[in-house]
Amino acid sequence: MSEELQPDDVLFKEIFSEPEQAEGLLRTNMPAALAKRIDFSSLELAPAALARRALKSPQNKLLFTARFADSGAQVYLLVVRRHTREPLMPVLFICDFARIWECWIEENEGARKIPLIFPLLLYHGSEPWEDPHDLHSIIDA
User: Fold this and answer.
1) Phi-psi sector, 63: left (phi>0), alpha (psi -120 to 50), beta
2) Where are the beta strands (DSSP E) in the chain?
3) Mean pLDDT per segment of 10 residues, for the chain of length 141 residues?
4) How far apart are CA 118 and CA 12, in angstroms?
């Protein structure tokens, strides 16, 4: 389920760890309505300690925080880069979400709501991505 670190993963992280570079990537790959709500001037790379705690296999992932312009509520933006297909990708995202929220709850004791997490999968394997995009497609019921 986890991938080995590739040489271009280092370049990816070096370039897109910069909020100015990540903004363009995120804006063009998220729903326009969501992009309009985010205050991209508040976009920051999440602290390394949080990323190490919250993300399994953080070498191919970037975690950002930002604020909604209208409410000031925090939003997380999770960018995952993959070289290979993964049929259980929706589950891997949910696992990352749960760890991010767990860390957030520890830091925001007494909160009654949790922040939105927007996931972005950047896949560039040799085969087309034909794996499920949603959880209900992989539940055997």
Assistant:
1) beta
2) 38-45, 61-68, 74-82, 116-123
3) 70 90 95 97 90 79 96 96 91 93 93 96 91 89 85
4) 19
